[in-house]
Amino acid sequence: MFLIEAFVYIGTIAFAISGSLIAIKKNLDIFGVILLGLTTALAGGVIRDLMIGNIPPTNLADPQYFLVSLLASLATILFYDKIDKFEHGITFSDAIGLGVFTAVGANAAISLDYSQPFLIVAMGLVTGIGGGVLRDVFVREIPFVFRKEIYGIASIAGSIALISTYELLSPTISLYICLTVTLTIRMLAVKCKWNVPVVHKKAPVKKGTVNY
């Protein structure tokens, strides 16, 4: 389907830019920038395909995704000063990638005749956050999905929207809805500073003290 292919390329470019921008900000060398861009763009799809038994993974079997990621990373290196001027450039490109790959991942599960909602949501989530999680781990940052920011929840909501509309509307429209819901929730969370409550550990009471 042309729409799915377009989604994949858009998400691949967006995630490759996101990973490359972070790598540059972390002062990695050229190889590190490219590798982090490739990881961010391709790892989520690879993990998804391995989990659902799609061997070899699409991102590795079809070199065009690797080449698109490579070109996006190189372009980020060459035009970093211009790209970095866009406000919230990393956040927005990352949100686009999250929305696109959530839609593609959930749709991949459905296209292989998996009907369990939990599995469909899980595949959308893994595809959406997998590359970003590895990206953040590689640069020794706590991944977005593990922090108080609304990130994984946006992906889950998008997959649920896809499942809810897949039979009622056409698959094409449901993909658009999934992308829109995921991207909208993520960007609203950033703009409005919506956060998931953080669990704070209680400070230990020292022996010999009395609390009133």
Automatic annotation (TrEMBL):
Subcellular location: Cell membrane
Any single Gene Ontology cellular-component annotation: plasma membrane
UniProt keyword terms in alphabetical order: Cell membrane, Membrane, Transmembrane, Transmembrane helix
Lineage: superkingdom: Bacteria
Glycine transporter domain ranges (all copies): 7-80, 92-164
Bilayer topology: Multi-pass membrane protein
Transmembrane domains' residue ranges: 6-24, 31-51, 63-80, 92-112, 118-138, 173-192
Pfam families (UniProt xref): Gly_transporter (PF03458)
Family: Belongs to the UPF0126 family.
Name assigned to this protein: Trimeric intracellular cation channel family protein
Species of the source: Gracilibacillus thailandensis
